[in-house]
């Protein structure tokens, strides 16, 4: 199927649709920033955006920035403070409405691993991973403190595990009321948005189930690429394709086309 947009663009637009006008939002670099600033450009002009580095109230200038304090994101900021202010004050206190994070690996309760991939269980004593990943950065802070957060991830079997080996950023831990029992300020992940569709947590169990799929995917394809027996929500349905105005807003943010991949 030939479409006038890419899978990356569909994922960014689907994520951006979750952002509401007026929210205090924190975005990481890359696709999460594309999704967040797309929302600001299209339907949420009053989003109060910030980065993990403390750049507050900015919009990208001349394309997406290469980092969280790049001139493209700090040149027109309302304030330029520090990660301590952003993560330690606004996010950790529960003031941040929504965050967007990425994942190298995610499980059925929305726990994210960005630390490493081990060949089996780590064991009683730490041992180096087979593949070392980039680490959590500020994602752990966002996962613990934001009122809700969104997970963006490529939908591949290697990324969707029934249980992650290492929890870099907590989702709903073992499910149910685990977050409340552990005293987290934040509410947890409200959606896992992928290159194939959207998963959302069940209200009671907090297990993620399939909520929708894109025009170029299907429930069968998504289940085949998920490492657990993925349930389908009763109201699961196809996700609307990007409108002309959504694509225009997205490409205005990603003016250089840096993230316009297949």
Number of domains: 1
Instruction: State the low-pLDDT regions, or none.
Output: none
Record field, number of beta strands: 14
Mean pLDDT: 93
Structural class: alpha/beta
CATH topology (fold) name: Glutaconate Coenzyme A-transferase
Radius of gyration over all CA atoms, rounded: 18 Å
According to CATH, the homologous superfamily is Glutaconate Coenzyme A-transferase
Reported for the largest beta sheet, the result is: 8 strands, mixed
Helix content: 10-25%
Instruction: Give the name of the CATH architecture.
Output: 3-Layer(aba) Sandwich
Strand order of the largest sheet: 2-1-5-10-11-12-13-14
- What is the C-level CATH assignment? Alpha Beta
Cα-to-Cα separation, first versus last residue = 12 Å
User: In percent, how much strand structure appears in the residues?
Assistant: 15-25%
Assembly state (oligomeric): single chain
Description:
There is one protein chain. The protein is of the alpha/beta class and 262 residues long. The chain has one domain (7-253): Glutaconate Coenzyme A-transferase. Helices cover 24% and strands 21% of the residues. The protein contains eight helices and 14 strands. The strands form four sheets. Strands 2-1-5-10-11-12-13-14 form an eight-stranded mixed sheet, with helices on both faces. α1 packs across α2 (31-42). The protein is globular, with a radius of gyration of 18 Å. It starts with 6 loop residues before the first helix and ends in a 9-residue tail after the last helix. The mean pLDDT is 93.
């Amino acid at each position: 199927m030939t479409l006038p947009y890419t899978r990356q663009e569909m994922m960014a637009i689907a994520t951006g649709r979750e952002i509401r006008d007026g929210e205090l939002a924190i975005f990481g670099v890359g696709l999460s920033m594309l999704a967040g600033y797309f929302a600001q450009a299209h339907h949420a002009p009053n989003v109060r955006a910030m980065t993990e580095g403390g750049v507050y109230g900015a919009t990208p200038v001349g394309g997406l920035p290469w980092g969280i304090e790049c001139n493209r994101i700090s040149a027109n900021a309302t304030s330029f403070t520090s990660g301590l202010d952003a993560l330690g004050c606004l996010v950790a206190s529960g003031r941040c409405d929504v965050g967007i994070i990425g994942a190298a690996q995610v499980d059925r309760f929305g726990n994210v691993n960005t630390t490493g991939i081990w060949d089996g269980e780590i064991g009683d004593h730490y041992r180096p991973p087979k593949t070392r990943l980039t680490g959590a950065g500020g994602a752990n802070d966002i996962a613990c403190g934001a009122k809700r957060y969104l997970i963006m991830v490529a939908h591949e079997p290697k990324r969707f595990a029934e249980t992650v080996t290492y929890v870099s950023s907590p989702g709903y831990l073992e499910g149910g009321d685990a977050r409340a029992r552990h005293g987290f300020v934040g509410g947890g992940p409200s959606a896992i948005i992928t290159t194939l569709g959207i998963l959302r947590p069940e209200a009671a169990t907090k297990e993620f189930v399939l909520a929708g799929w894109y025009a170029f995917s299907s429930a069968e394809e998504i289940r085949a690429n998920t490492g657990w027996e993925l349930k389908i929500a009763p109201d699961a349905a196809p996700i609307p394709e990007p409108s002309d105005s959504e694509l225009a807003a997205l490409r205005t943010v990603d003016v250089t086309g840096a993230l316009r991949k297949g």
